[in-house]
Amino acid sequence: MKVAVLDVNGKDTGRKAELSKDVFAIEPNNHAVYLDVKQYLANQRQGTHKAKERAEITGSTRKIKKQKGTGTARAGSIKSGVFKGGGRMFGPRPRNYGFKLNKNVKRLARKSALSIKANDKSIVVLEDFNFDTPKTKNFVNVLKALEVENKKTLFVLGDSNNNVYLSSRNLKRSEVVTSSELSTYKIMNANKVVLLEGALEGIESNLNK
């Protein structure tokens, strides 16, 4: 499939970019997308949550009442979770939420995400550009030219470009990544995916291994 290549002013350059059907026009696998997004979000969790349990509470260890004859349930310690100030029963413990996902599933998920965006006409191909110095205003002008300044936008570069990255860093709705950093979550989270020409070859080679 062919897509028009735009310049930084949002004008058609007259050139066409060929998007591989094996990456941008497959039948999306929604379950693979779900699993990859789930793994990405799980890996963001610190898992440092912790509640004090019965053995960690400071308090008396004496038996607080006799075993029988009170007419109420037996109780051996004031640190029990059934009493105010006692330990938390079955509370959270530090853990790792990450889980393994097959590489082929991750590739399928990214191709499915790109195909969904292509089908929704949410992919824009932009010619390679650079800034002389990092300046947010320059990046904002590019967003305005592409009419995406009020949308969540993902820019995908072929190689790391410090000036472009630093120019976008202060903008909450925009993110700049390289083709090797592309993830299913970032694709699906964006309203518009802007692919620079230099990134197309890297994306297709990474996802067609």
TrEMBL record:
Enumerate the residue ranges of region (Disordered): 45-77
User: GO molecular function: any one?
Assistant: structural constituent of ribosome
List, alphabetically, the Gene3D superfamilies matched: 3.40.1370.10
List, alphabetically, the GO terms of the cellular component aspect: ribonucleoprotein complex; ribosome
The alphabetized UniProt keywords are: Ribonucleoprotein, Ribosomal protein, RNA-binding, rRNA-binding
Statement: the UniProt record of this protein carries the keyword rRNA-binding: yes
Which GO terms fall under biological process for this protein?
translation
Sequence similarity: Belongs to the universal ribosomal protein uL4 family.
Outline the subunit composition: Part of the 50S ribosomal subunit.
**Function text:** Forms part of the polypeptide exit tunnel. One of the primary rRNA binding proteins, this protein initially binds near the 5'-end of the 23S rRNA. It is important during the early stages of 50S assembly. It makes multiple contacts with different domains of the 23S rRNA in the assembled 50S subunit and ribosome.
Q: What is this protein called?
A: Large ribosomal subunit protein uL4
What's the source species for this entry? Answer: Winogradskyella jejuensis
The coding gene here is: rplD
